[in-house]
Amino acid sequence: MIKTRFFEIFMVRPDAFSVWEHSEVKKRLSWYYKVMINEKPAKFLIAKRVESPINPYSTDLTIEELWEIHDKLANQFKNLLERIKKGSCTLEEIPKPQYSLLDIKIALAKRLMSPCTLCERRCRVRRLEGQRGTCYMNKRCVVHSYFHHIGEEAPLVPSGTIFYGGCNFKCVFCQNYDISQVSPLVGEILSPKQLAAVQESLRRSGARNINHVGGDPTPHLPFIIESFKYLEVNVPQLWNSNMYLTLDSMKLLVDLIDIWLPDFKYGNNKCAERLSRVKNYWEVVTRNLKYAYENGDMIIRHLVLPGHLECCTYPVLKWISHNTPYVLVNIMEQYRPEHIVARYPDRYPDIARRPTRDEIIKAYQIASDLGIVYEPVS
Fold first, then answer.
1. Within a 13 Å sphere around the CA of 119, how many CA atoms are in the beta-carbon half?
2. How many whole angstroms separate alpha carbon 355 and alpha carbon 43?
3. 8 A C-beta contact, residue 374 and residue 367
4. Buried b (16+ CB within 10 A) or exposed e, 241-266
5. Is pTM beyond 0.85 here?
6. 322: pLDDT strictly greater than 60
7. Number of C-beta neighbours around residue 322 at 10 A
8. Nearest to 295 by CA among 251, 340, 359, 334
9. What are phi and psi of 210, to 5 degrees?
10. pLDDT-based confidence at 227, cuts 50/70/90?
11. Which helix (H) or strand (E) holds 49?
12. What is the per-residue pLDDT for 3?
């Protein structure tokens, strides 16, 4: 079954195999690659072996107390991760504790969800009581589809992609607007245990990774983290996001995510507020990108918007070259007018068309001049 599936993928996406002959790809995605081929354990499996001294689900604990324990255990996790990377110990040598760093993260994620401060909108609705946030989501994990995605970047294919409902952005050109903004709750409601079963099935049928996307996965962060409690199969975890998370949410994720796949759309706050309805985009996203870069492998996606080379593409690529020089970058030419832009093009004349070939070539040239490695994944 898996052999047949990989033959089919090879016929459609031969670059999914040949990309690993590229020395920079293998070097820059070294941890992801080792987990992908089961040479090393995924980070969530390691987090489950870091023992918690207390039951984190106790209602007597304050959130401050939970964070204090979390930060101590996160340091233990980093030490254990380094030992595993160096081969000085294996996961099998470490007993499974009753409660772990992962349990601490689950407990904290639920606290952050109600009142909700998972993302930098900080809408503070009580989602556990059924209230819907700015992202449209409540206390349910809503999944719209999951499958082997062969349209992602070559090192990721086939990607076990899970599309969640809702989004904390309101992009006027969103290509997934049906699940992110129009009908985010019209999907399959999954428990964390069921979500773990989906991930296991995707991995066992040949997925190279589990790709959490949407919409955006941030509103579903508590459910995703809890699903790892029930997931025992080794599989790289991939965070495919707009990266508009709070620092607290990032702290929960960095010990669990093996490879980051962030969008980095805008080179300034003005464009972000006008086209995605978010404030302080540049400060939030660059902070989170730097934090993620220090804690895992990464492929950054930059969608080239027509007419936005000077205000967005150049500053984005310049920032990447100076602050995250070791990442791979996918310079994307897939933009097309969708959603509100398609209905009201006169309101958004700058992006009411596809980018020209000259604009894409100019974006590639900017990347080349800055020393960015983009060819293997663009």
1. 27
2. 39
3. yes
4. bbbbbbebbbbbbbbbbbbbbbbbbb
5. yes
6. yes
7. 9
8. 251
9. -110, 120
10. very high
11. none
12. 57
